[in-house]
Automatic annotation (TrEMBL):
All copies of domain UPF0033, residue ranges: 7-31
Cited InterPro entries: TusA-like (IPR001455), TusA-like_sf (IPR036868)
Pfam families per record: TusA
Lineage: Bacteria, Bacillati, Bacillota, Bacilli, Bacillales
Record-linked SUPFAM superfamilies: SirA-like (SSF64307)
Superkingdom classification of source: Bacteria
Protein name per its UniProtKB record: Sulfurtransferase TusA family protein
Length: 75
């Protein structure tokens, strides 16, 4: 999936992946896609809930070699 911006949040513990995601989202315009890489297992539930409450759309999420990857479309 083609992302407009990639955020590396690997090695960060909660709540930092969400804090960095919010900051990165602020730099995008509506409809653009942010790709997030995280290693904190809690990020899966946290980012899904954050996207929903923020009016964004979690398009996809995968896990590859312990790295969680998310694609969120800005609302």
């Amino acid at each position: 999936m083609k992302a407009d911006k990639v955020l590396d949040a690997k090695g960060l513990a909660c709540p930092m992946p969400i804090v960095r995601t919010k900051k990165a989202m602020d730099e995008l315009t509506s409809g653009q896609i942010l790709e997030i890489h995280a290693t904190d297992k809690g990020a899966k539930n946290d980012l899904a809930a954050w996207a929903k409450t923020g009016g964004h759309e979690l398009l996809s999420d995968t896990e590859d070699a312990g790295v969680l990857k998310f694609w969120i479309k800005k609302g």
